[in-house]
Write a structure and sequence with these properties.
single chain, 11 helices, four-stranded parallel sheet, 232 residues, globular, 8 strands, alpha/beta
Amino acid sequence: MHIQILNPNAQTDIAPRLADLVRARCEGDATVAWQTLEHAPAYLDHPGALAALVPDMRRALQCAVPRPDLALVACFSDARRELAEGSAPFPVFTIADYSIIALGLRGQPFSIVTGGTAWVGPIRDHVHALGFADLLSSVRASPGNALQIMRPGSDARRAFDALLDACVAEDGAAGVLLAGGGFIGAGPVFRMQRSTDGLFDCGELAAEVAGRIVAGRLDCTSPAALIDGLRP
């Protein structure tokens, strides 16, 4: 199986970080290639910015060589539906699809924390659309973006840390998801500060699902089919 990863912003380290996580989970049973969208902004600060890139993302995936069996887009959004309208001859998912499904199938209350308040409503809607509304404790967002939040000692980092802690202490979440391409691979950084194994980054969970798809040759033609295949 060949998996193509696409990052729709200009941060050149996001796609290779996700590719490394996916390769590790697939254990040699899949080839993984990655690309960063050309002429993209450094950060997608609202859903409209991402929507404007959908035609370019669609073209990039359709021109990928070799043709993928599966594409994974490194953005935390419901862009899958818009990308599917381009009639790609292979399944296309986002890291939001995979990580929300993985966390939802654990069957425990969870919260999602991201950078950028404009994403709260769309993330909540996405969780509902995937069928996990009853497990969603909260969606919280820092006004800072991931680039700012990942700077140790910054005001943005301190504010984000407070949101993570509030998800457990105030919202009753058993699991907390770091949501956004800029947080791919950042789970260990935030777990070091907390005595919990319930903190996940979206890249880790997306790679987990990709590995299970490859190992089980699961039907991933739609989110519903994938959820059925992943259920215990």
